[in-house]
Amino acid sequence: MEWMAALTAGGLAGLGLWMLLDRNLKRVVLGIGVLGNAINLGVLTAGRLAGDGAAFASVGATAANPLPQALVLTAIVIGFGLFVFALALLKRTRELYGDRSTDAVSAATEEPAPDWQAGQEEEEPGNGGRREPPS
Predict the structure, then answer these.
(1) Collapsing DSSP states into helix, strand and coil, what is residue 115?
(2) Which residues span the domain enclosing 19?
(3) pLDDT for the residue 126
(4) pLDDT at residue 115, rounded to an integer
(5) Mean of the pLDDT values across residues 97-123?
(6) How far apart are CA 68 and CA 74, in angstroms?
(7) Is the distance from CB of 16 to CB of 35 less than 8 angstroms?
(8) Which positions, given as ranges, span the membrane (predicted)?
(9) Is residue 120 part of a domain?
(10) Quick one: average pLDDT of 54-82?
């Protein structure tokens, strides 16, 4: 059972990395989600799915380690929040650039900022550039 979960975690990790290397932003976001699930499955598998003998129970009782399960549950909740935030960023990127390709986003250039001194008065040499308060 554990070898099957470890093999599945490895396959999911490979799939997630393959999706991360794509130029489509939707696949990158999905790749992050798949890679997170692979890591969660790997941590859960490393925590021994079958369980060992319980510390304070009868001889025949077995119990699974609760620490990896608690860590994975926390990681699932955090990963879901991150995934929803990434989808919101993906939607905004689609609205701004009209394309979900990383090339289109990186090629888009913003207009340079206007010169901040263009609307200000010339400095007077006698007062070190300070403005006098209106009287």
Answers:
(1) coil
(2) 2-50+66-105
(3) 60
(4) 66
(5) 65
(6) 10
(7) yes
(8) 6-21, 28-50, 70-90
(9) no
(10) 81
Assess if residue 96 is contained within a domain.
Answer: yes
Average pLDDT of every residue of the chain = 80
pLDDT range class, residue 110, cuts 50, 70, 90: low
pTM of whole model > 0.90? no
Cα 26 from chain centre: 13
Single-letter amino acid, residue 108: A
Overall domain count for the chain? 1
- Please list, residue by residue across 8-21, b when 16 or more beta carbons sit within 10 angstroms of its beta carbon and e when fewer do: ebeebbebbeebee
Work out the number of other CB atoms within 10 angstroms of the CB of residue 102. 14
Query: CA angle, 78 as apex, 74 and 84 as ends, to 5°?
Result: 150
Does residue 129 lie within any of the structural domains? no
DSSP state of 100: -
Q: How far apart (Å, rounded) are the C-alpha atoms in residues 80 and 131?
A: 53
**CATH number of residue 33's parent domain:** 1.10.287.3510
Q: Angle at the Cα of 65 (from 59 to 67), degrees rounded to 5?
A: 150
Phi and psi at residue 12, to the nearest 5°: -65, -40
